[in-house]
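Lab notebook, bench 4. Still working through the backlog of constructs that have no structural model yet. Next entry is a single chain of 480 residues. Request: give me the structure tokens for it.
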Amino acid sequence: MPIVAKIIPETGKERRGITIGKFLKKGSMKGLSKTLQTGQPGSPKKRSDREKVQDFQRKLYIKAKQEKGFKFYILYDKVRQDYFLREGYRRVKANGGAPGIDGVNFEQIEAQGLAGFLEEIKKELESHTYKPSMVKRVYIPKANGKLRPLGIPTIKDRIVQMSCKMVIEPIFEADFEDCSYGFRPKRSAKDAIKAIRGHLQSERTKVLDADLSSYFDTIPHDKLIIVLKERIADRNILQLIKMWLKSPVREGNQTKGGKKNKYGTPQGGVISPLLANIYLNLIDRIVNKCSGEFRKAGIYIVRYADDFVLMGRKLTEEKLGKIEKLFERMELKLNKEKTRMIDVRKDEFNFLGFTIRSERCKYVEGRRYWNISPSRKSEKKLRQMIKEYLMPRGHIPIDIVVGGLNLKIKGWMNYYNIKNVTYVNKPAFRLRHYLGYRLYKHFSRQSQRGNKHYGYDAYDKLVKYKGLIDVVTYAYGSKM
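Model written out:
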């Protein structure tokens, strides 16, 4: 049985421990493994790939949570396990996405044989001949009219990244602070908004609304690897991550990046959000440290990936300066044009598509409440999405058009409607008015004479007879 070493933080001495493989074989797990291998009548049914992965992750998380300084030495063998690769493929396919630089899609892989495709990946990982392909760079439009760069790895690379992510994620999940909500299991933007409302109710109304400049493109590789080494001592895992960070990026006819590249992790890679969270967790730890100056000053952080706010009853320029210095040490920069300190009792701010402000209550004189609602920008984006959806569908059957509209409306309402937290009634009325106008225009274009069945009351008829969502009723009645 291989022996691993662990440094005890309090003494600085080396402590001998066991590999995670031995840890997983302790106790009942050993007996369960034997029972599953025998396949004897009356034994538990064979576990799925997903269950095997989750069981491993659970054990790994417990180990990491119990021993904060433990370094994990033998993990690479799990990345190339058959059930990890199969589960990795399943998750990558469920996420969808375009083919990478090689043009290979899911249909082609399955037509040629998925088992053989995964076996080839396994052999490359076992022989250490795996090399990631170039990343295809595309651009997607942002709400402000600018373009966001997106890196698309090949499906093969996405599978290996997913397998690696499934192995190392529970280790770092044990270390992540509760104030972080982006790209984490069982956490969402809704939880971040609930946390912000909780701070506001505790009178932490001074807010640093911060914005990082091109965060994903500026993560320094050397410092990121140092943070990873706090928990990962498996050189093969670290080498995989280094190769992905150094992967060349193909943009049109140009190739950028490569081995000389020292910064950034492409947005679009499966493992990129996890790496981004691992690096920014340094800030979370500093702000949340009980004996630290931020916590002593009553300052809290709420972070969703690279979007975050600092909240407290008192915020000073001195604290802003300290945050800036912390980011400078991490080789990151705050966007000074978009970063501002406000008092939410007097001014509003936007976070994750929500507008957060204090408003006077209409029903109780002298009383105010925290109005958290969809931002006007998000409403405008939804209207544009509906318009672009309807424009090319003038001769599509109504039932199909209604089904597509319902998906878009439900998705938007489900994101913004947080029970006992947000107010979506006014936006729902505005959306209902817009749908009435847009559907009238849609049906009036179907022929020169117009569609006689749907006039100005097209929206009401579709709600009544075709199952279109009544957005106002949905806003009042949906429970999140």
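Notes after review: The radius of gyration is 26 Å. The first strand starts at residue 3 and ends at 7. Flag for follow-up if needed.
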